[in-house]
Each structure stands twice: as C-alpha cells, then as structure tokens.
Amino acid sequence: MVMAAERGYDEVVDIIREQELKREKPEPEPAPEGAEPAMEPVAAAVVRGDSAWIRERHAEGALRDPLTGHGLLTLAVKHDRPEMLELLLELGFDPDETRREAGADEVVHSWGRPLQECTQSGKLAMAEILLAHGADANAWACVWNAYREKDAAMIELLARYGGVPNAMTPGYLRDTELAARMFAQEDAGTLPKGTVPEGRTVAEEILDPAASAGSVDILRMALERITWPRDDPRWWRILASPLCFWNHIPWIYSQKWDLERSSYLPCFTMVLDRCDANIRGRFGITVLHYAAASYNWVAPEERVAFIRILLDRGARMDARDELLQSTPLGWACRWGRLEVAKLMLERGADPVEPDAELWATPHAWAGKAGHKAIDALLQEYAPRK
After folding, report:
1. Terminal CA-CA length for the chain
2. Which pLDDT tens digit goes with each residue over 68-112?
3. Burial level of 26, CB count in 10 A (0-12/13-18/19+)?
C-alpha cells in the first residue's frame, strides 16, 4: 500500500486499505440458528426473528441499533429475515441506516449498508422492501454491485427506483454497450444525473477505469474525446493505469468476469500514443519507474513487455525520482524484478551509477533487499577494472 501511495495511485490505495481493514477485523460466520456469540440483546433478537421482543423494546422507547457491529437492518438482511426487515422499517428505522461509526467524532453516513448487502448477495426481495421504504438506490456501490454480479433483475429494480450506474462502471467491467450508451446520451443531452460528477464528461470519468481494466474499445471511445496536450500531467495516471491489471488483482478478480489479460498492453500502447513516455507523476516518478516495480500479480513476461515498449518510445533510464532518488533500474533492484533489471542492462542502463547517493545505487538496493541474483547480474555488467 505504501508503494501505491507513493506512486499516487489513490484508488488502489483505497482498495488495499479496505482489504487490510477487513483482514484486521474478520467477520464471524453467521450462525444458522440463534444468536452469534457476544451479540447485544437487540441484535440477537433480530437474528432469531423475535418480533415480540423488538415490539416490546420499541414500546418502551428503548429500541436502538447496536453500539458496535452491524445495524439492525443490515443484520436482518445478512440473516435472511425479511419479516424483521419489514418490521424495523415499519417502526421507523432509517432504510439507509445512517449510523455513528465507532470512534468517529461526527455522524458518518453508512450510505445504505442494508441495500449494499442485498446487492452483494442477490437478495432481490429484501432490496425491493428497502427501496419501497425509501432507501437510496444510488447508495455507495449498490448499482456497481448489481452490474458486477451480472444481476439483471437487481439492475432493473435499482433503475426503477432511480439507480444510475456511474461512468466508471462500464470502464472497469469492460461493458462496451453501456459505455456507448452513456456517450450517446451525453451527445444527446440526456445523460442521467449522477452518471458523472458536476462539470465532468463521460470521457474524463471513464478514461482511467478503462485503462486500468484493459477495456480496449471503451478506452478508444474515450481517447477520441480527450484533447489534452502530450505533456499534460494528467496523462501520468492514465498511462500507469494498465499496469495495475485491475480485473486480475487477487481480491477483485471474479470468475463471473473471467477476462483476458492480454488487453492491458494494447491499452497502454494506445495511451502512450497520446503522451510523452517521460511524463512524471508525484515525487518525480516516471511510468518507467512504476513499471519497473509493478505489482506481484503482474507476470514477469508481462512486465517486460511494458518496459520494452517504454524503452522503444524513448523512456529515460537515467531519470531519478524525488522519493527514493533512484533510477528505474534502482527500482527494479529494490523490488526484486530480475527480468526488468536484465532488460535494462541489455539496453544500456548504467549498473554502477557513480553519480547516485551511495544508498540509492542499484547495487545498494539489491543488497539491502537481499536480491542476490540481481546483485550478481549487476556485477556481470559492471565495467572491468
């Protein structure tokens, strides 16, 4: 995550942070019957379907969401209790379940956690109950979940209650038909509100997701509408995006979207046709730096293919970033990318870098990280004394 943050890839940072929080706070498996251990009485009553207990507490004015864990509506959805869901809504519970998060100084809106749970697990009937009681169909990730799950019935239901997919959705999911429809609506002036943020275009919103997800046709449509100059700093993020192999990130990959890996490189080339290969991002990092390290789920031969194209387009191997004060070769040595180091050395990269800080040379990085094979390779290419 630190590496992603250093490189300015905010979306990946958010995804990684969310996954780390989930690992730090594992969710207990729901019990098939009865309450989960250590549940507050009100939560346990919802789980076991004790409507009488719930009504009694409501009559006493003592019916509230648990202080920790899921809200009552979300618990009803998770434990398949539609009758409890309807009861709680009839008793006045907020269908979007606005709650104060533990440790927060202000009310943090849950953005529709109950409906989100329905869309993640395909619980159409309970989703309709929530929507009929005023739940926001555009609550965080609900429409996205329906499209990602390829749940046509859920998509139709959400649309009936005003749910609108945002422009990033077809980009990430390689949904060319949906993207084309959005562009056509934009041209006709009929684009639904919420598809893009105020002041943004579909092309601007869909560009990064399409590049990240290897959506070749969608990226082509978007690029036709983008007029940025070649040295515009916004290109850095777009050019780096295909290197994340978004649909093949281990915790994002889904068999429902068993997509080809081969389309990331064409997307990269298409963006590179529009910008300078040496464009710099935050901390002076070039895309060659980024590619030299890249992620562990990117195969060595895939990484090399990206590097080769960059070098063929004039990417500089002597560029130093401001963070590690290192060249792309230094980054490859730091992150143990033997195949990248070999290619760069074959293409003339300096294995010694006498002008570098002692701690920032390729040899220093390989030694500190314990990459002995790379260290040996550097010695092989070093000038003979």
Report:
1. 41
2. 889 999 999 999 999 999 999 999 999 999 876 655 455 555 679
3. exposed
CA distances from 361 to 179, 341, 357, 365 (A): 46, 13, 7, 6
Give the C-alpha separation, 27 to 31, whole Å: 12
Rounded to whole angstroms, how far apart are CA atoms 107 and 201?
32
Q: What is the pTM of this model?
A: 0.84
How is the chain split into domains, by residue range?
40-53+70-91+112-163, 165-259, 277-385
- Amino acid identity, position 69: G
Cα angle value 16/17/22 (rounded, 5°): 95
Q: Distance between CA atoms of 349 and 361, rounded to whole angstroms?
A: 12
Among 186, 194, 92, 190, smallest CA distance to 139 is for: 194
3-state SS, residue 184? helix
Q: Which residues of 275-306 are buried (b: 16+ CB within 10 A; e: fewer)?
A: bbbebbbbeebbbbbbbbbbbeebeeebbbbb
DSSP string, 241-254: GGGG-GGGSTTT--
Q: Which residue, among 7, 252, 298, has the nearest Cα to 268 in the 3D structure?
A: 298
Its CATH class, for the domain covering 277-385, is mainly alpha
> Which of left, alpha, beta for 87 (phi over 0: left; psi -120 to 50: alpha)?
alpha
